[in-house]
Amino acid sequence: MNTLIKAAELWLPDADGQLLELTGGLYGAAAAFGFLSRGMCFGRGEGLPGMAWEERRPILLKDLRTGPFRRAEAARSAGLSCAVAHPVFVEDRFKAVVLLFCGDVEAEVGAVELWRNDPRVTPDMTLADGYYGATPDGFEAASNDTYLERGTGLPGLAWQHEASVHFADLSRSASFPRAAAAASAGIRSGLAFPCPVPGRENYAVSFLWPADIPAARRIESWIRVGEDATPTLAYAVDGDGAAAAGSAAGGPDAVVLRAFATSVPALAPQPGPGGHGVLALPIAIDGGVTEVLAFSI
């Protein structure tokens, strides 16, 4: 299955808290890129993971051939063209950096966006950066001109609810201001999730995709419900874009439970060839994990 997200990496601080070490990755068809990455580590401000750690904010690098990305040639050979570095914090406590790679999208419709609110400048969210591949220029222009109030649009809703938000059909959503531009560009579905960081700024990452290129093979949102805070499936998005709420048979995977318990992202590679698996990404609000997003990559 062709997906917008091609690969994922998990970087954790070492025992001394001085370096970020590559703990694992899901590389799909980019196995050679994963092999090259083994054993790598970065200090604060070094490479894309180190920059996100040092600056304490998510970073979208829309061209891996430029900037701080040290594996540019290997990424190009693997067909990886852009990446989002998402630092994970629980209040002020740094936990990890997750890298999500997209690739081969220069010939594909789809978008990855980073939205930012700085309350010292504006009460709205504005586009900090975006990668649009072969998406028509009109959609990028509309995005650059968009100011999202809290509770408006995918990023604004993720900001307001402090949780991920999924729209199966953006063209039918009155809460998505760029609905007409998305329909014209061939973009059907979208997902946004908040990126809590220390300080007053607010961030959200959004993935927007057409009917034939989903963001991932499957995405699940797990939240805590009830007095015993039982992890419960809020919704699931299959590769065809369909969304369903309710309980998954057998409950959450162990990797999801581990992310809830430790507040640290976790990977669960599938056995056998293919480089696939599940990334469990915790979202921590007010000092505790309130949601775990499980990406099947």
Structural notes for this entry:
This protein is an alpha+beta fold. It has one domain (5-296). 19% of the residues lie in helices and 40% in strands. The protein contains 7 helices and 17 strands. The chain has helices at 31-37, 47-55, 72-77, 137-144, 153-161, 179-185, 254-262, and strands at residues 5-13, 20-26, 41-42, 59-61, 80-90, 93-103, 109-117, 126-133, 165-167, 189-194, 202-209, 218-225, 230-238, 243-244, 266-269, 277-285, 288-296. The chain has a 6-stranded antiparallel sheet. It has a 6-stranded antiparallel sheet with strand order 14-13-12-17-16-15, with helices on one face. A 5-stranded antiparallel sheet has the order 8-7-11-10-9, covered by helices on one side. It starts with a strand and ends with a strand. The model has no long low-confidence stretch (mean pLDDT 92).
